[in-house]
Amino acid sequence: MNTMPNQQGHALQLRDIHLPEPVSWWPVAPGWWMVLAVTVLLLAIVIFCVRRYQQRRYRRIGLQQLSLLEGDVNLQQDQRQLIQQLSQLLRHLAVLHYGQSCAGLAGEAWLTFLDQPFQKKTAPENKPFSVGVGQCLGSGPYQKIIAEIDVAALFPLCRMWIKKLPLAAKQRGAK
Q1: For 110, how many CA atoms within 13 A lie in the half-sphere containing its CB?
Q2: Which of 5, 24, 50, 98 lies 20 to 30 Å from 88, alpha-carbon distance?
Q3: Is the separation of the CB atoms in 65 and 115 below 8 Å?
């Protein structure tokens, strides 16, 4: 009548529970490789943009000073003082860019120097300082009386000169 085996006499032969190995973090899934690649790319772009922004700082400052001079042109009627300030601004930027080699230039040599960013061809429009409206910067700052100048054309010319300046020599060497 007793169809059940004696449970106390027989120990069940059960196997122990084995847990699987913990999931390894290596190799990472392809999605993580993509996240890593995008992160490195974004970091490189940010570094490039920050360096570019810093390298062009002297241009931004020069353009701001030029805008201030342009705003003051309506308040002051003294064109001699305006020419002196423009020449001084361009000289400061040139010394920042080229070093002391251009600091002592005057007259025609200074105008030829200012024409350098425009000289891809020998056409007169590529010599706006030597032949064009910028001639007043050659000897104007040193004269007591200067002829009438085209202020409306002189400011865009100076702005274009500042924008055409490449990186300063110190910054080019740092790359």
Answers
A1: 20
A2: 50
A3: no
Any idea what the Cα angle at residue 120 is, between residues 119 and 125, rounded to 5°? 60
For residue 100 the two structure tokens come to 């002391």
The overall average pLDDT reported for the chain is 81
What does the pLDDT look like over 45-101, one tens digit per residue? Answer: 999 999 999 888 888 999 999 998 888 776 666 788 888 889 899 998 888 888 778
Q: How many residues comprise the chain?
A: 175
- Locate tokens 């002592």: which residue? 104
Question: ∠ CA(163), CA(175), CA(159), 5° rounding?
Answer: 5
Find the distance separating the first CA and the last CA of the chain, reported in whole Å.
97
CA distance 28 to 56: 41
Reading the block at residue 102, the tokens are 């251009």
Is 133 within 8 Å of 149 (Cβ atoms)? yes
Report the candidate in 126, 122, 127 with the shortest Cα–Cα distance to residue 137. 127
Main-chain dihedrals φ then ψ at residue 20, nearest 5 degrees: -70, 160
Please, what is the Cα angle at 149 between 144 and 152, to 5 degrees? 140
